[in-house]
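Reading group handout, session on sequence-to-structure problems. Before we discuss, look at one worked example. The prompt was deliberately terse, the way you'd type it at a terminal:

> structure Multidrug transporter subunit MdtD

The input record follows.
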Amino acid sequence: MTTPSYASFRPLLWLVSLAIFMQMLDSTIVNTALPAMARSLGESPLQMQSVVFSYALAVATFIPASGWIADRFGTRRTFLAAIILFTLGSLACALAQTLHQLVAARVLQGVGGAMLLPVGRLAVMRSVSREQFLRAMSFIAIPALVGPLIGPTLGGWLVEVASWHWVFLINLPIGVIGYVAALKVMPDHYAEHRTRFDIAGYLMLAFGMVVLSLALDGISGMGTPHALVMLMTVAGLAALVGYWLHAANSTAPLFSLALFHVPSYRIGILGNLFSRIGSSAMPLLIPLLLQVGMGMSPMNAGLLMIPVAAAGMLSKRYAVKLVERFGYRRVLMVNTVLVGIAMASFIFMVPGQPMWLRVVQLAVFGAVNSLQFTVMNTVTLRDLDRDFASSGNSLLSMVMMLATGFGAAAAGSLLAAFGHLDALHGATAALHATFVCVGAITLTSTVIFWQLPDTRPSPRDVEEVAE
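And the output record:
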């Protein structure tokens, strides 16, 4: 049987790349527009974290179900449904008149986004031969790098020349093009052996994630009673413990506890969760500091995010060499400290600061932050065998999005906690205090990476994993 040529898969790769670009663009384009949204909706710009938080939580909640849905209903129908949901969610966001309506629309967007990337990757995995797989995955990884590079600047430009609504309306033509293309080129793959979905485990896991996230967001003082926050925290923890006990006794759990028998995976997944909480707060906090704290225009604030993304792309090239020379443990421990210090250093970003110094500071943060992601993801997945590779990657994706939601909620809670500084000294003081705290949160993950063995793998064992 003749192996199909790489060129025959190119339309599918372009389609999946378009979907990934749409999702990654949306994840970064919103942050620059948050102050404008706050003014339009009559909200405080320091309490707009729910716009980011709701999307990330919806994606994290539905990622575990995306693979089973694609296996059950086919990659083609699932992918088309994902595009429809994401596009309709984008339209609903643009039409929102209140913050609550915007949050609800972001949840709808998140449900579509949760299926776009995993199902697109699954279609590529089942269509492309093993010999062509690495080349195909490298191709579709490019939009994941380009989206964050242009997203903040594009968002700032759209706010200035039109309105914040266009950061969502821009998804409509992309969604229509993607839907038409998917009708023609998306293959319809089903699972070879249909498996029973662990609905009980999924409900416990999803409930635990949602309730804990809402409890963390409730600390921000948005009218949530303290007793309810405590109740949600206990209920969320109980649900996660319930899932743990359920998975230990189930023959086909959503995520097998055997994954945690692999030391590097166990350490990597926990390190990812705690390290990313601080990192995920930064895309929300930096545009707020630049616009609300320093009075910059949305366009100029977006332009200043380019050094973050560009330096991050450049630092990925050195990840392999650093790990080869110093080992995972030393690189992660030292770099985690550097990331925490880089976050806290934003207390020195003040009006009147030379522009070149701001660019250097943002570039340094982008470099060490991206290096952290690359090495963390690699150490998490490197020792998984083929049987656990798929579920291990899905759990990692879920934890990454959950940490994004936690980060946004934590940023909002910290800004609310420092509200007295805002009242006395302005928004800049509250933002500076929050930067110090998220840096400290990141530093706590150092004790997790300290548990890694002090090994130095060969270059071929070190792979750069998409964020």
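Points for discussion. First: Confidence is low (pLDDT under 50) at residues 458-467. Second: Residues 47 and 222 are 8 Å apart (CA to CA).
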